[in-house]
Design goal:
The protein is of the alpha+beta class. It is 12% helix and 20% strand. The protein has a two-stranded antiparallel sheet with strand order 1-2. The two termini are 24 Å apart.
Length: 60
Amino acid sequence: MGKISVVVDGRTFQAEKDTCILEVARRNGIHIPSLCYNSEVTSSGGSCRVCLVEAHQGER
């Protein structure tokens, strides 16, 4: 797998191509509220939109 650049809150990180953006953020000390990774909450398959992010491809 290849590496990609990911920008979160204006900071650029390197990640493996198919890594979840939530994982990239958490590994780098950025808190994004979510329910699907909380063992005390039954997830509805990612449909709650708590961790909704805006994604752009390429230069901005």
